[in-house]
Task: structure prediction
Amino acid sequence: MASQPVIVVTGAGGQLGKTLAQLWPQSALSQIYQLLALGSAELDICNSDAIASALAPHDVAVVINAAAYTAVDKAEQEVERAYAVNETGAANLAQCCQANGARMIQVSTDFVFDGQANSPYKTDANTGPLGVYGASKLAGEQAVLNCLGEQAVVLRTSWLYSPFNSNFVLTMLRLMREKEQLAVVDDQIGSPTSTFSLADCILAFTGRTDLNGVYHCCDGAEISWCDFAREIQVRALTLDLLEREIPIAAIPASDYPTPARRPAYSVLDISATLADLDLPEPDWQQNLQRVLEHLAQ
Result:
C-alpha cells in the first residue's frame, strides 16, 4: 500500500502549530493525509539542507508555514534573525515545495500595513510596514509568491491569541489576577483572531487546490486593545477564570512607548476569504469565548 500523502506544519511548538495539531484529528483531511508537525527543534527552516532531508522521506502535498519570528519589539535589534526566519526560512520552504510539486500556505500578518487606513484593508491594498517584523514578513510573502506562484496561498492574520504559549489574552488574565487596576492602549484598532478560527481557515485552504494568492483571516472585529481587554475580563469572570473585577483605563499608545511602531489601524477585509471558502461571518466574541472555555476546562 502506498504511503499517505503528508501535510507538513512548521512551527509546531507555536500557538498556531499547537492548535492545528489539536484540530487535525477532527478534520476531514485526516482521512486523506498524514500530519507531520515539526517544531524548531525538529526543523530549522533557515537551513535549506535540513528542510530537504526532513521532507525527502515523505510524499509532501502541502507545507503550512506557521514558523515565524514574532517578537515585534526585539526584531528592531535582531534584524538579521527576523529576516532569516521570516524571509529566508519562508523562501527555503517555498523552494523545497517547488522541487517536490507541493503547495504552500504562508501565514503572514497585518503588520505589513502602515495603519493609515480607516476602513478594512483589502488583500491588494498598498503595503508599508512600520518596523522590522512587518517588513521581514512582507519579504517572506513576496519570496513565497515569486517562487511558487499559483501553488501558494499567503494568509494574513492579526492579533493572534490562543490557550497556548504567550499572547495578549493570557497576559491580560495574569495581570487581572495580579493587579488592582490596568491601563490599556485605546488608539490602536484591529481585529483579534483566535488560533482556532485561523486553523479552521488554514485547513479549509489546505483542501482547496484551486485557490491561491493573498487572503486575509481575522475574527471580524474593529476594536481597540482596551475594548478587547474589557471583553476578556467580562467573559473570564462568568467562567470563574477571575475572582474579581478591576478597573481598566484607556490610554493613548503615546503613554506606552515601544521600540517598534505599530499600525494605528490594521483591520483586515476578510470578504474574499469568506466568499471563496463559503464560510459564515465570524463572531469575535464567540471565538474569544471558545478560547476562554478551553482555559476553564
User: Anything to note?
Assistant: Residues 6-161+191-219+262-282 form a domain with the Rossmann fold fold (CATH 3.40.50.720). Residues 37 and 127 are 31 Å apart (CA to CA).
